Amino acid sequence: MNNDQNSLPLAKALDGFLAGEPAYFCIPGHRFNRGVSGELTERFGESVFKYDLTEANGLDDLHHAEGAIKEAQELAADLYKAKHSRFLVNGTTCGNEALIIASASEGDEIIVARNSHKSVIGGIILSGAKPVWVMPEFDEEWGFYTVPDKREIETALKNHPDAKAVFVVSPTYYGNAGNIKELAEVCHDNGVPLFVDEAHGSHLYFSEDFPKGALQNGADAAVMSAHKTTGAMTQSSMLHVSSERVSIESIDKALKLVMSSSPSYILMTSLDASRHQMAKDGASIMKKTFELSMKLRNAVEEISDMNVYNGANAEEILKNNCDPSRVVFSAAGLGITGYELSDMLFEKYGCALEMADAKNVVAVVTAGNTDDDIKRLSDALYDISKKHKRINKKAAAPPGINIPEMAYTPRTAYFLQSKKIPLEESKGRICAQTISPYPPGIPVIVPGEIINEEIFDFLQYCKKENINIHTDGSMSIDEIEVVIEK
Questions:
Q1: What gap in Å lies between CA 339 and CA 32, rounded to an integer?
Q2: Quick one: 37 exposed, middle or buried, by C-beta within 10 A (0-12, 13-18, 19+)?
Q3: Backbone angles phi and psi of 248, in degrees to 5
Q4: Eight-class DSSP state of 23
């Protein structure tokens, strides 16, 4: 096993292949850069297409890694202190799906935090597992869910002793990392693995100023989007397994089902390069990230009628298991919704934020940002606070939603006959699709659940406020797909 974190096995393999200048009769069809649209090379340059190769001689195979890809994955496992690591080219989505498919068969119960990403629902539908929902804590002041506490997990495991696994998200889109160590201990005491959707946490392993990563806190497996907070390209993720409570053979089998059989070598090489970068410079990268994050937090804290989630005290942020680089703030004191604030910042000041909800906006700070970025955003917020007319009414967040009654498992409902009906006629019907405000992609209702009055009112609210909604094939909430009841 190669433990040299300075090596780049995938890049080396690609360079070696290209150095031979082979007559190329493999997929893809563009033949290095010779068959590429000029419109693309004008924008992307030519060199990137030389590396867009396939499983040609000596370049290994992601689904049966024995050479350069195997070596690159072993280096990732060494860096993150995992037993096994797998490169993912379909994002964290396919990793979440694979974990569920590998651990639960049709009819098996799996305990799932209700604020999990919609990809978890996809895994449940594919596997046929029956979800046992655990409600995370809801922050009434800020209007979003955090991470379940150990009492919720303990209760769920006590009531469902045959559950195959527990699945939570940490850190959340809002930067809550929760107490994963406690959750892992509860799971292991009950003989089940803890899986963590760590899509937003690949950077947590390299600084004492940030909460520890899920694997460091005892999680049995974690899936992380290396493109979200470290330097990999979009759609590039990793799945790490750190115990024998989940079978790596079962995960590999599941990945063959949910991940492309033609993986991008550009994406895989970006994963290897990102791993190399964090192994070499992770501490300094995270030091810069932390300093920029605290500058922004302090600047927003000083602006009248604006507030930052978890404030600007580094010790308190860490004590609350919060990622300081996930800067969540609100102008609700000015009567400005998160959606309005996000639009203002982009359209009038040229500042693009990661997401918005009814009350808040989320800025993701990385070492790729600059002092000028922080100043531009801070100055924009100060200008908004100065120019915006203050009103007595504060922008309010929608209330938390309780878990609706489940009439069918998600898989059963997904494959039942269904039809679309107007939202206004949907109350009391059985939903046949996943409906998620996006971002963050957390389902409001999933297939098989009954659209009760609370869900109906929330969806009406989303429609009124023009909130982006992901359904199965549409961004509209005018119609809902429901089960045809006989």
A1: 43
A2: exposed
A3: -65, -30
A4: P
* 32, 49 contact by CB (below 8 A): yes
Structure tokens that stand for 303 in this block: 């602006």
Question: Do 183 and 168 touch, CB atoms closer than 8 A?
Answer: yes
Tell me how far apart the alpha carbons of residues 302 and 305 are, in angstroms, rounded to a whole number. 9
Give the separation between CA 13 and CA 28, rounded to whole angstroms: 18
What b/e sequence results for 373-412 when a residue is b if at least 16 CB atoms lie within 10 Å of its CB, and e otherwise? ebeebbebbbebbeebeeeeeebebbebbeebebbbbbbb
The DSSP secondary-structure symbol of 30 reads: T
Residue 139: C-alpha distances to residues 144, 176, 401, 447, 463 (Å): 6, 11, 12, 26, 23
Let me know how many helices (H) and strands (E) the chain has, helices first. 16, 17
CB proximity list for 427: less than 8 A, separation 6 or greater: 451, 452, 453, 456
Enclosing H/E stretch for 237: strand 237-241
pLDDT 10s digits, 314-372: 999 999 999 999 999 999 989 899 999 999 999 999 999 999 988 999 999 999 999 99
Give φ, ψ of 472 to 5 degrees: -85, 80
Place of tokens 């190769």: 53
Q: Which residue has the tokens 């800067």?
A: 327
Provide the whole-model pTM.
Answer: 0.94
Q: What is the DSSP letter of 22?
A: P
CA atoms within 13 A on the CB side of 396: 6
Distance in angstroms (rounded) separating the CA atoms of residues 395 and 227: 33
Spatial contact of 389 and 333, defined as CB atoms under 8 Å apart? no
Contacts of 449 (CB under 8 A, 6+ apart): 404, 405, 406, 407, 430, 431, 455
Cis omega (within 30 of 0) for bond into 439: yes
Query: Both tokens of residue 53?
Result: 């190769």
Q: What does the alpha-carbon distance between residue 481 and residue 421 come to, in Å, rounded to a whole number?
A: 6
Of 155, 164, 162, 189, the residue nearest 99 (C-alpha): 164
pLDDT digits (tens, 9 = 90+) for 93-127: 999 999 999 999 999 999 999 999 999 999 999 99
